Amino acid sequence: MESGNLTWVSEFVFLGLSQTQELQLFLFLIFLFVYTTTLTGNLLVMVTVTSDSQLQTPMYFLFQNLAILDLCFSSVTSLKMLVDFLAEKKIISYHGCMAQVFFFHFLGGAMVFFLSMTAYDHLAAISQPFHYVTIVNAQLCVGLVVTAWMVGFVHSISQLALMLPLPFYGPNILGNFYCDVPQVLRLACTDTSVLEFLMICNSGMLDVILFLLLLISYSVFLVMLRSHSGKIRRKAASTCTTHIIVVPMVFIPSIYLYAWPFTSFSMDKAVSISHRIMTPMLNPMIYTLRNQEMQVAVKRLGRLWVVCKRE
Question: How far is 68 from 111, CA to CA, in rounded Å?
């Protein structure tokens, strides 16, 4: 595609995490293990919740959908990164780059909203424990999940709508291992200051606001726990603690990447690895698999698998 004597960029080149072949092979093995663990952990949550009749509750329905989000969110970046570790030249087509941006923000936006809405689940469990089943029912959970996916879609399509009209005539080198708004925007052959501001408002400021609201919510939860008995307080505190661990893991890297003007920093790659690769692996371990009921259900599933294999 040409404009005058200028040729539109048809592909982007990643610099990746390293240019050393031996180190790339080592990194391939490390991140293959990470992605396999992510795949195994989240699939285990999904299969266990689906197959165990005792886990057919709103809370585990939400856990199952979080596992789906984590798995898809990780796959958007990890699969391409693993292929590139073994490739001589790390390239992605223009359309592939835009697709990666879309799916990353689609799934990331849905996850951020989803984690925010699970705070409502905890609030209902703590403030109205005897009415929890009627307040947080199946219809509400389905509505929350559908809303999360819709919010993610609107967030992502608005980002993409701002990026697609931008002219890209070169250079085409991205100083990272994936496509995302900040680094792609820096390659546009036009002034992008207004777009940066709009995208910071769309991503970074929303992350900051939601993160602060969640911190306030959990402060309120901890105060409310004082009026409950010791057993209920310990159980609620355990549930809230896991969520308090997961929320900063998701929000803080996102705020770092999107809450200020899109300039390059030395920590960008490390934060990106944490945000895109490590968090989806750790979420099922922290959020779901440490849950006692979930552990019992996994053991039941293991025994059932052994019986089926013998038959």
Answer: 10
CB count in 10 Å sphere of residue 181: 23
Lowest-confidence region among 13-17, 53-57, 115-119, 236-240 = 236-240
Please state which of the ranges 74-78, 108-112, 129-133, 164-168 shows the lowest mean pLDDT. 129-133
Q: Name the nearest CA neighbour of 258 among 186, 198, 193, 182.
A: 182
Please, what's the b/e burial string for 66-80 (b: 16 or more CB within 10 A of its CB; e: otherwise)? bbbbbbbbbbbbbeb
Residue at 202: amino acid letter: N
Tokens of 170: 């070169």
pLDDT in tens, 138-184: 888 888 889 999 999 999 999 899 899 999 987 889 888 899 888 89
Write down how long the chain is. 311
Asked whether 156 and 109 are in contact (CB, 8 A), the reply is: yes
Higher confidence at residue 231 or residue 34? 34
Pair of tokens at residue 72: 């898809």
- Strand order from edge to edge, sheet including 11-14: 91-93, 11-14, 173-174
pTM of the model: 0.87
